[in-house]
Structures are given as structure tokens and as C-alpha cells.
């Protein structure tokens, strides 16, 4: 477990949030290796001792942050696809939610991709847990005849790759900061034809 | 320019190759920030002075390596798609070549993705130059009626994303080290339906 103590008060939760926000900024701007606990503490505006109430070391903050970002993204996708009428609609909202999430967490790729050096298992688990969720939905949709018969694991990684690299292009490279609808429309033309059956444009 | 001097002899070329191979191993195992010129020199089995014949500093080796890997991959794709009979066939061979390339350069994602910290422009240019090549081919195939009308830039990043994440999954996560044909077949089912017209399986 990456947390030494769970915060028990509102103030504790706020402190943990300050640490997490400071770490997110620093790990994406300076990178994990160039960031010290002192930097995190200073940026968060807390006392050094307060840091150690919640974390044992820098690595624990990193693990906590990666898991937190992954959980927030999954929660956000779950929330936004709650009223989806079919798997296609879910896919559409999922991609849109992902683009918005990256727009709100500009350093996401820098943080997640450097996990390859900090903790390869953590990096792998980050994507494997997304894939697992995807695979369940794909198999269900394939059984219903909504989606094409393609190996669900490979298809899940195709979809993860599409979401990641179109977000990288439009947000990180082109600096797009809102209104991703046009990007989503074009991406969905490809996904609709590629993975869905009997779904007219 | 990242090279101080171009090697003029066979021996010079061999030395440069030794430096490049040592840097590739170290940047992917230990990472850019934890690797020193001394490590590179030791691993390459050359004298410190020899290093400075070709490079000014560590960053130059990194830039040289990223550009070298990008060029090798492009050359390899160009070579393997020379006899392709149509765009679909090119795409098939392109994905297959990419998987083989990643299999031969296990640390590729670690090296390329940490470029986000070392030199963001270099990182961006690495993918943008791939996209540009892709876009040319896509527009040609769309004009001929071979490919579906999807924004070619977005489509190029969809295809780059698919290649990267299916390679990440099958090679880095699952440890597959040869015979990527099954992966390519499944990926191409998706791409064929998603981006190609009148192309039967």
C-alpha cells in the first residue's frame, strides 16, 4: 500500500490533495528523477513532517499518483457512459472523456510513460487494468452482435492506442485545449467501420 | 547537428556504432538521467577521448540515437513495402515490420518516450515525421478510392497508436519475441474494416 495513513479529516484530505497536485506538476515538469521530496513539500506548502504522515518516500507518492489518475479516468468514463444506449455510444463517450481528461492533465503521458523506469509492473498494470475493463465490454458487445469478431485483447489495445495517440497529437502537439468533438468524430468514423457491425454513420 | 565529426573510415563507423549500441542499452535500462558519459564509454569499450571525436555531450548521443532509430525504422518499412501491390498490403507489411523492429529494439518505448523530458521538440518531431509519411500515402490511397475518407492526419495517428500499443502489449508486456503474424492478422481485421474500402478478408 502506498499510503502510510488514510486521511481521517477534511483537512487531512486537503493536505493529501495538495501533495498529490504538487507531485503531478513536478513529475510532469521536471520528471521523477529530478524531483525531491523537498520540492514536493515546498510546492504543496506543507511541513516536511506532514509529508511523512502520508508517504514513506518519493516512490510511494508516484505509485499513489499513477493509481489515482487511473482511478479518476476510469470513474469519469464510467460516469459519462452510464446513459449510453449501446456499445458504440459508450465507445464514443469513452474517447471523448479521455480527450477531456488529458486536456485537464496535460502531463499525463509524461507521468505515466516514465513509470517504465520507476516501476515497470506499475506501468504494465496501468494499461492492463484498462484493457481488462475494455475486454469485458467488447466480449459482451460481440456476443450481442454489436461488435466485429476480433481478438478482444488485441482490439482493446488498438482502441487504447488510438485514444492515446490522437490525444497526444491534438492536445500535446497541437495545443488544442477544448472542443475535441471534431477529433472524436473522425476517430469514430474509423472505429465504427473497424469494430462495429451494422452501424450506419 | 548532433555529430561533431562524421566517421570517415570503417573503423570510425564501427566506433560510432559501438557508442550508439551502448547508449541504446543504457538509456533503456538505466534511463537517460542515470546514465553518464563514463558509463557509455565503458560499455562501448572505447577511450573517453574517442567519445568526444563524435559527440559533444550526452544529449547529442541521445538525439543521434532517436534520429537513428527513427531512420532505421522508416528505411525498414520502405524496404519491406517496396513490392506491396496496394495500400492495404503496405499497411500490413508496415505493421509487421514495426512489430519486428520493436522485437529487435526491446527498449524502444522507454527510449523514445523519455524524450519528452530530454527534448520535447525531438519527441514531437519523431512522431510528426512518421505521421507526415503516413499522410502522403493515405491521401494517395483516398484519391484512388482505396481508403475511407477520414481526416488523414487523425487517421495517421490512429494507425501509429495501434502499432505502438499492440507492440507494447505483445512484446513488452507478454514477452512475445517472434512470429507476430497472429497479432498482425487481428490488427489488420480492424484496420481493413476501419480504413479500407471494398477490401474483402
UniProtKB/TrEMBL annotation, chains A, B:
Pfam families: TetR_N (PF00440). GO terms for molecular function: DNA binding. PROSITE patterns: HTH_TETR_2 (PS50977). This is HTH tetR-type domain-containing protein. Residues 13-73 form the HTH tetR-type domain. InterPro entries: Homeodomain-like_sf, HTH-type_Tx_Regulator, HTH_TetR, Tet_transcr_reg_TetR-rel_C_sf. The lineage of its organism: unclassified sequences, metagenomes, ecological metagenomes. Keywords: DNA-binding. Transmembrane segments: none annotated. Coiled coil: none annotated.
Amino acid at each position: 500500500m502506498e499510503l502510510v495513513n488514510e486521511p481521517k479529516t477534511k483537512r487531512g484530505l486537503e493536505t493529501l490533495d495538495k501533495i498529490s497536485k504538487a507531485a503531478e506538476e513536478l513529475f510532469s515538469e521536471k520528471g521523477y528523477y529530478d524531483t525531491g521530496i523537498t520540492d514536493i513539500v515546498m510546492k504543496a506548502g506543507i511541513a516536511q513532517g506532514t509529508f511523512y504522515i502520508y508517504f514513506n518516500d518519493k516512490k510511494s507518492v508516484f505509485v499513489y499518483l499513477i493509481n489515482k489518475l487511473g482511478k479518476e479516468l476510469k470513474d469519469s468514463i464510467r460516469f459519462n457512459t452510464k446513459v449510453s444506449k449501446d456499445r458504440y455510444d459508450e465507445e464514443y463517450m469513452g474517447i471523448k472523456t479521455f480527450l477531456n481528461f488529458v486536456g485537464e492533465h496535460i502531463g499525463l503521458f509524461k507521468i505515466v510513460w516514465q513509470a517504465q523506469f520507476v516501476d515497470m509492473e506499475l506501468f504494465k498494470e496501468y494499461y492492463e487494468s484498462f484493457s481488462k475493463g475494455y475486454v469485458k465490454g467488447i466480449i459482451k458487445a460481440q456476443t450481442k452482435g454489436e461488435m466485429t469478431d476480433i481478438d478482444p485483447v488485441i482490439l482493446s489495445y488498438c482502441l487504447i492506442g488510438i485514444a492515446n495517440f490522437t490525444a497526444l497529437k491534438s492536445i500535446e502537439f497541437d495545443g488544442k485545449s477544448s472542443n475535441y468533438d471534431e477529433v472524436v468524430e473522425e476517430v469514430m468514423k474509423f472505429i465504427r467501420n473497424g469494430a462495429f457491425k451494422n452501424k450506419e454513420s
